[in-house]
UniProtKB/TrEMBL annotation:
It is found in: Cytoplasmic vesicle, Secretory vesicle, Synaptic vesicle membrane. The gene is SV2B. Residues 116-684 form the Major facilitator superfamily (MFS) profile domain. Keywords: Cytoplasmic vesicle, Glycoprotein, Membrane, Neurotransmitter transport, Phosphoprotein, Synapse, Transmembrane, Transmembrane helix, Transport. The keyword Transport applies. The chain crosses the membrane at residues 116-141, 153-173, 182-199, 205-229, 241-263, 283-302, 396-416, 541-564, 571-590, 596-618, 630-653, 659-679. This is Synaptic vesicle glycoprotein 2B. SUPFAM superfamilies: MFS general substrate transporter (SSF103473), Pentapeptide repeat-like (SSF141571). One of its GO terms (cellular component) is neuron projection. It is a multi-pass membrane protein.
Length: 688
């Protein structure tokens, strides 16, 4: 059945459905044309008998009675008090909430929900991949783009900035334009600019592409949870939203595995002259777009949320979608004869009036400007609504909990690999070899010199050919009649050296590597072009390993939270998980080796995931349909702001002290966990 667009010959008027000719025809009056029926209507046999459960597009008997009651005192909406209209709408929404819950229970939970589960799971997976991509490509991208430390830091934060803005924008638009439409647009933006970023060569354009890519995928999280929750019954909601969270973990595992298998093969790719290089890390960026594209294609075959359609008064479309859900599930259960018994669904009174300019009025851009400004005004009103008296306290508490979770989690996930790298560097420096007053003459050196310091020595008539300097320092040395050919270097410096009658040919030994040195009769020929940070660090794989294990470690927590979400409740899950995570932070004081730090990271992530899952569920359940995606977007945007702060603050303490990051993370988690206990429990309530 085609359900994405249903022709509607009936229009909603005063709470009822009337034919589009503007008149209501009761049972005693003949229609204008006997054969005029809604395209969406079927179910008549040759004797013109109506099959049970088939929607005919006619007014429900309850509507006729309600209309008759309202006829006498009825007054045009424009002359009624707005508070009265809002009160009437809230009453309608409450009736709809309970009726919709019964309808979803009648539709059952089966093939349709599981299909949507995997489609939306791919979108959530794309969000998880986006978080990891930049961190994985940085070590290789800096070689192609000559990135400084500040540039690398900006590249790491720009994705979170895009996701922060995108969450607020797409979350707000999804409550006005529809879940499916906004999710498709946001995923399309992410896929297009992520794909484009793999080909650009300049740092500025690459930064811009990742920013817009983050802006697109920022809409994934708020829309996916609002979208899926509106197809779930109360008894299934907590568990299956928690299962859906697993796709974020799968995204992290996918990105880690692909990085591990692709990026180290730096030779994969091609070059076009000396200016254009397409190396393995760019292949990895393309591979990471696949989950997003897969979800984008699959979404084209999924319907809009019927709960959203009912909220905006599109009764017939919502009914057809719910019938599709019912029939799909019944066929999968082997009960195709089961009839969808719902004939009419309560539709809330429509208050918002969308300003429309006729095609003959104004130019096309004026009409579009009015549409855009009206939509933005409605989105802004939704944002403010989340801070009204009814929701203000819950919004503030949720904002604190979201921020504290993101600040500690994202801060520590950056701090863990940085600390491990710092411990590695300490161990590496402990193996430093020092050479004093050496005198080397008439030899050829064609092997790597690594982790060495040479002081007060002499190199006379030495040829350095096709070799590498790695973490080598020359201090107060004399180089006389030496020849450097095809030499690359990393973390290498010449300090206060004297260089006589020496030739440098095809090397990356630039001026900045010579500090207070004296040159006499020295020639530099054909210096290497581009950025030659030059060879892969042997511990680059550790980034992938730590991320892979950190993502995998949340699997037990995901399973436990899904199974217990509806048994112990959302509030206890959030508070308990955050307090346990705070305790785990104190074990970090004992992290004095790489293996211990990796183990502690896995412990922290595993304890932390249950709070994330419960937080996603309760955020969906605390807000009504017309504000659900907006509220989720605001809170998720604040979450990304916490991630930016956490990344910046925690990284600054690496190698200085462990006390501040540990105390900061644990105290923030304790505060957030205790505040979460003041939220209302939502596992027994229907979706408003």
């Amino acid at each position: 059945i085609g359900v994405n667009q249903v022709s509607d010959d009936y229009r909603y008027q005063d709470g009822n459905y009337a034919p589009s000719d503007g008149y209501y025809h009761d049972g005693n009056e003949p229609t204008q044309e006997e054969d005029a029926q809604s395209d969406a209507t079927e179910g008549h046999d040759e004797d013109d008998e109506v099959y049970e459960g088939e929607y005919q597009g006619i007014p429900h008997p309850d509507d006729i009675k309600g209309k008759q009651k309202k006829k006498a005192p009825a007054m045009a909406d424009e002359f009624r008090d707005k508070a009265e209209l809002i009160a009437e709408r809230m009453e309608d929404e409450e009736q709809l909430a309970h009726q919709y819950e019964n309808i979803i229970e009648e539709c059952g939970h089966g093939r349709f929900q599981w299909t949507l589960f995997f489609v939306l799971g791919l979108a959530l997976m794309a969000d998880g991949v986006e978080v990891f991509v930049v961190g994985f490509v940085l070590p290789s991208a800096e070689k192609d783009m000559c990135l400084s430390s500040s540039n690398k830091g900006m590249l790491g934060l720009i994705v979170y900035l895009g996701m922060m803005v995108g969450a607020v924008i797409w979350g707000g638009l999804a409550d006005k334009l529809g879940r499916k439409k906004c999710l498709i647009i946001s995923l399309a933006i992410n896929a297009a600019f992520a794909f484009l970023s793999s080909f650009v060569q300049g740092y500025g354009f690459f930064l811009f592409c990742r920013l817009i890519s983050g802006l697109g995928i920022g809409g994934s999280l708020p829309i996916v949870f609002a979208y899926f929750s509106e197809f779930l019954s109360r008894e299934k909601r907590g568990e299956h939203l928690s299962w859906l969270c697993m796709f974020w973990m799968i995204g992290g595992i996918y990105a880690s595995a692909m990085a591990w298998s692709i990026i180290p093969h730096y030779g994969w790719g091609f070059s076009m002259g000396t200016k254009y290089h397409f190396h393995s890390w760019r292949v990895f960026v393309i591979i990471c777009v696949l989950p997003c594209i897969s979800s984008l294609v699959a979404l084209k075959f999924m319907p809009e949320s019927p709960r959203f359609l009912l909220e905006i008064g599109k009764h017939d479309e919502a009914w057809m979608i719910l019938k599709q859900v019912h029939d799909t599930n019944m066929r999968a259960k082997g009960e195709p004869e089961r009839v969808f018994t719902v004939a009419h669904i309560k539709t809330p009174k429509q208050i918002d009036e969308f300003i429309e300019i006729q095609s003959s009025t104004g130019s096309w851009y004026q009409r579009w400007l009015v549409r855009i400004m009206t939509t933005l005004k409605q989105v802004w009103d939704n944002l403010l609504y989340c801070l009204t008296a009814q929701y203000k306290m819950n919004t503030l508490i949720l904002a604190t909990v979201w921020f504290s979770m993101a600040f500690s989690y994202y801060g520590l996930t950056v701090w863990f690999p940085d600390m491990i790298r710092y411990l590695q560097n300490e161990e590496y420096e402990s193996r430093l070899k020092t050479f004093n007053r050496e005198h080397v003459t008439h030899v050829t050196i064609n092997f790597t010199l690594e982790n060495q310091i040479h002081r007060n020595g002499v190199f006379l008539n030495i040829k350095f050919a096709k070799m590498k300097f790695k973490y080598v320092t020359f201090e107060d040395m004399l180089f006389e009649e030496c020849y450097f050919e095809d030499v690359t270097s990393s973390e290498t410096v010449f300090r206060n050296c004297t260089i006589l009658s020496t030739v440098f040919y095809n090397t990356d030994l630039y001026e900045d590597k010579f500090i207070e040195c004296r040159f006499i009769n020295v020639t530099f020929l054909h210096q290497k072009e581009g950025c030659h940070l030059d060879f892969e660090q042997e511990n680059d794989f550790l980034i992938y390993l730590v991320s892979f294990l950190g993502s995998l470690s949340v699997l037990p927590g995901n399973i436990i939270s899904a199974l217990l979400m509806d048994k112990i409740g959302r509030i206890k899950m959030i508070g308990g998980s955050m307090l346990i995570s705070a305790v785990c932070c104190f074990f970090l004081f004992f992290g004095n080796s790489e293996s211990v730090m990796i183990g502690l990271q896995c412990l922290f992530c595993g304890a932390n995931i249950a709070a994330w899952n419960a937080l996603d569920v309760i955020t969906v359940e605390l807000y009504p349909t017309s504000k659900r995606s907006t509220a989720f977007g605001i809170l998720n945007g604040l979450c990304k702001f916490g991630a930016i702060l956490g990344n910046s603050i925690f990284a600054s303490f690496v190698g200085i002290t462990k006390v501040v990051p540990i105390l900061l993370a644990s105290s923030v988690l304790v505060v957030g966990g205790l505040l979460a206990l003041r939220l209302p429990e939502t596992r027994e309530q229907v979706l408003m």
